[in-house]
């Protein structure tokens, strides 16, 4: 039976700029194609002589993410009018989703963002305020950022893992992710006889995680330096991440 590759989109985009040289400058089309290549390698059926053969063992690539923030509003400090639908991050995300939908055997599963947008003072500036080194009047517009949270993404991943396992649609599930939220679903899939492989894109995983998976394998370029915490990516790649 074929292989299903499930991708936590927020993690993938966050990690992309670390594992791909110059990844911060890549456009939506290139990022989508690199993701597709990584997923196809997990099917173990790439053939330069018979290109279509690489899909024989691939059930589907399931990509999970949230739509970008597209609200309009005003900055809480300066009251400047804001249209988040026109930000580089929103335009990148929407075009990226469209590029993914064009690719063979890719399905995009979208959650949603929390109802209200929360504004936060950057941690370093907040510490200065607590220490009495900074007052509210000293804050600048860039010191206050908006915070949005994904809803429904982890639930969709868990439900799809359970469905694939119970219906015996695949005998191997590959999850591209970076946290342990998937462990309950992984344990269920393994009890159903499904081979469960984690692809952390060379990111550090805690040793205790190994008892809940059947294998650890990354099919993206390995960073040239030791990396245990993902580098901070450009905002255009990460808006809407958890």
Task: Give keywords.
single chain, alpha/beta, Rossmann fold, 7 helices, disordered C terminus
Describe this structure as you would to a colleague.
This protein has 242 residues and is an alpha/beta fold. The protein has a single domain, classed as 5'-nuclease (Rossmann fold, 3-Layer(aba) Sandwich). 31% of the residues lie in helices and 20% in strands. It has a 6-stranded parallel β-sheet with strand order 5-2-1-10-11-12, sandwiched between helices. A two-stranded antiparallel sheet has the order 3-4. Strands 6-9 form a two-stranded antiparallel ribbon. Strand 3 and strand 4 form a beta hairpin. Helix 5 packs parallel to helix 6. The longest helix is centred in the N-terminal third of the chain and has 14 residues. The chain is elongated, with a radius of gyration of 20 Å. 31% of the residues are buried. The C terminus is likely disordered.
Concise account of the structure shown:
This protein is an alpha/beta fold and 242 residues long. Helix content is 31%, strand content 20%. Mean pLDDT is 86; it is low at 46-52 and 226-242.
Order of helices and strands: EHHEEEHEEEHEEHEHEEH
DSSP E strands, number: 12
Q: Assess the beta-strand content as a share of residues.
A: 15-25%
The mean pLDDT is 86
Number of helical segments with 4 or more residues:
7
CATH class category: Alpha Beta
Instruction: From the 3D structure, determine the CATH topology.
Output: Rossmann fold
């Amino acid at each position: 039976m074929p292989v299903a590759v499930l991708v936590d989109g927020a993690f993938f985009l966050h990690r992309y700029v670390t594992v791909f040289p110059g990844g911060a400058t890549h456009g939506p089309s290139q990022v989508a194609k690199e993701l597709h290549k990584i997923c196809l390698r997990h099917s173990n059926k790439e053939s330069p002589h018979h290109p279509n053969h690489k899909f024989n063992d691939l059930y589907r690539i399931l990509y999970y993410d949230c739509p970008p923030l597209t609200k309009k509003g005003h900055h809480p400090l300066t009251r400047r009018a804001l249209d988040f639908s026109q930000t580089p991050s929103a335009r990148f995300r929407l075009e990226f989703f469209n590029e993914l939908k064009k690719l063979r055997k890719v399905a995009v599963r979208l959650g949603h963002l929390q109802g209200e947008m929360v504004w936060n003072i950057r941690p370093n500036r907040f510490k200065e305020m607590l220490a009495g080194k900074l007052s509210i009047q000293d804050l600048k517009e860039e010191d206050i950022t908006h915070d949005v949270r994904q809803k429904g993404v982890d639930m969709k991943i868990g439900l799809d893992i359970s469905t694939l396992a119970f219906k015996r649609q695949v005998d191997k599930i590959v999850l591209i992710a970076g946290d342990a939220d998937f462990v309950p679903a992984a344990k269920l899939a393994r009890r159903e006889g499904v081979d469960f492989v984690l692809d952390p894109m060379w990111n550090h995983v805690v040793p205790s995680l190994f008892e809940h998976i059947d294998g650890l394998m990354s099919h993206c370029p390995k960073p040239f330096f030791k990396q245990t915490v993902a580098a901070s990516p450009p905002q255009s790649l990460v808006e809407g991440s958890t």
